[in-house]
Amino acid sequence: MARKTPQEKKRLSYAKDRRNDYGENDKSSRKNIRLDKRFPHRANRRREHQILHAGVEEVLYLKRPKRWRKYRDAPLGEIVQDRIERRSSTRADEAN
């Protein structure tokens, strides 16, 4: 196994590492992911209870249950490239 040069390490880091590009604090995701999972389940349980309590089970299957999905973060290389492009475009605007 050959040693990697610093340039190779940097290239691999840009490809493998990921960053939150959604715009919220990455630490807050620890709480928000659990909350975001909890709310659809709670709404589905409430709707099932209301319908079953009313005695109309067929209505339960007319509306699709709510769900939540977790999306992965963007690769670090894309984030860095977007920042570089944004900087160059703002500098070009300031020069004009």
Overview features:
96 residues; mainly alpha; 3 helices; 2 strands
Q: What order do the helices and strands follow? A: HEHEH
Based on CA atoms alone, the radius of gyration comes out at: 23 Å
Helix content: 55-70%
Number of strands: 2
End-to-end Cα distance, whole Å, is: 52 Å
Low-confidence stretches: none
The computed structural class is mainly alpha
Q: What form results from the Cα inertia axes?
A: elongated
Mean pLDDT metric: 85
Biggest sheet layout:
2 strands, antiparallel
- Bin the strand percentage: under 5%
**Largest sheet: spatial strand order:** 1-2
Number of helices: 3
Region (Disordered): 1-37
Summarize the structure.
With 96 residues, the protein is mostly helical.
Describe this structure in words.
- By secondary structure, the chain is mainly alpha-helical.
- The chain has a domain at about 30-70.
- Helices cover about 60% and strands about 5% of the residues.
- It is built from three helices and two strands; from the N terminus they run αβαβα.
- The protein has helices at about 5-15, 30-55, 75-95; strands spanning about 20, 75.
